[in-house]
Structure formats: C-alpha cells, structure tokens
Inverse folding.
C-alpha cells in the first residue's frame, strides 16, 4: 500500500489524477474488503468479500501496466508493486480455499463463526 502511494505522488504519475486515484482506490479496496468481509456473520459472506478483494489486487496490477506504458513508473517499481499485489492475491486465494474447506468439514456454509465458537 505504501509503495502505491509513494509512486502515485511522484510528479509524473500525479499529473494523471484519474489513474493515480484509481490505483490508490483499488489498493485500498483490497484491505477494506477483507476487513468488511471479516466482520460478517458467516464464512460464506467473508469468502464473497475476499473474491472482491482479490479482484481489486488484479485491478492494481492492470493499472500498473498502464503506468508503466506511460513511463510513470520504472520497471523496478512495476516489478516490486506487481509482485506485492500477486503475493497478496495468492494469500487471499489460500484463505478462500481454507474457508471453503471448512464449509464441508463443518457441514454447512450457513454456519457462522460465532456458532462454531460456542460449540
């Protein structure tokens, strides 16, 4: 997240206000959707928000290609941030797989985390 803001506040990138703000919003959306999904009552809802979060990470990567093509960021900056977004998406994907596996092991996707904790 810090790297996104660091590069989007540079002179060249910041002059493209729309792209700079869009990549910032996408990066922020990754974190926000994880948080919002986590406070939901069920793992099924959490998984839905995790998919949105993973999509936002892909959006960040897409915007990075545009920024690279327009010479707003260097190859090194692109590789660093792209890699961070990829790693984040992989972690989210693993969490989705884990939660989906827990659906079957606990018998119902509608079961809430709170219900399991009180058992």
């Amino acid at each position: 997240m810090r790297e996104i803001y660091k590069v989007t506040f540079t002179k060249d990138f910041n002059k493209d206000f729309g792209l700079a703000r869009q990549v910032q919003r996408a990066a922020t959306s990754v974190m926000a959707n994880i948080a919002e999904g986590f406070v939901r009552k069920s793992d099924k809802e959490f998984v839905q928000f995790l998919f949105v979060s993973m999509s936002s990470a892909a959006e960040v990567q897409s915007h990075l290609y545009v920024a690279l093509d327009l010479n707003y960021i260097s190859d090194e900056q692109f590789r660093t941030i792209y890699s961070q977004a990829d790693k984040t998406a992989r972690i989210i994907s693993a969490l989705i797989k884990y939660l989906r596996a827990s659906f079957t092991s606990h018998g119902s996707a509608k079961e809430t985390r709170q219900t399991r904790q009180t058992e």
Observations:
- The domain at 2-106 is CATH 1.20.1440.60 (de novo design (two linked rop proteins)).
- The mean pLDDT is 91.
- The CA atoms of residues 64 and 90 lie 18 Å apart.
